[in-house]
Write a structure and sequence with these properties.
With about 120 residues, this protein is α+β, with helices and mostly antiparallel strands. The protein has 2 domains: about 25 residues; about 90 residues, no CATH class. It is built from 1 helix and 10 strands. The chain has a 7-stranded mixed beta sheet, with no helix packed on it. The longest helix is centred in the N-terminal third of the chain and has 22 residues. The chain is globular, with a radius of gyration of 19 Å. The chain starts with a helix and ends with a strand. The N terminus is likely disordered.
Length: about 120
Amino acid sequence: MKTKILLVQLFFFGLFFNSYSLGNQNHSEAKKVNVKVLEYKGGLYYLQDQLYTGLFYNVFSSKGSTSEFNDSYFEGELINGERNGVWLWHRNNKMSHKQIYENGVLMSDIVVINDEAVNLKN
């Protein structure tokens, strides 16, 4: 009996997880690309000479390009080559900067200093 209950619970968990993950994708087959493969020209981002739409990320060192230790990460979204949605920067696994774009226009710019959010754009 316990085995049947466990199987039923696993079944419903699988259904919930599958519907949740499908409902939260911004793009069909959403896949993040490393920003290093994108080309930035004229204020727009391109992938293989086409305006890029999708998610991207980058891992880097806050100590500069000569450091081998990557402690920072950022991610964002582009639509037709323009910045869109939420862009997040993390340092040592803590959010350090957040920007929100609409059709390439910066709408909100927040940095985190000593665990306090400071809005740079009013």
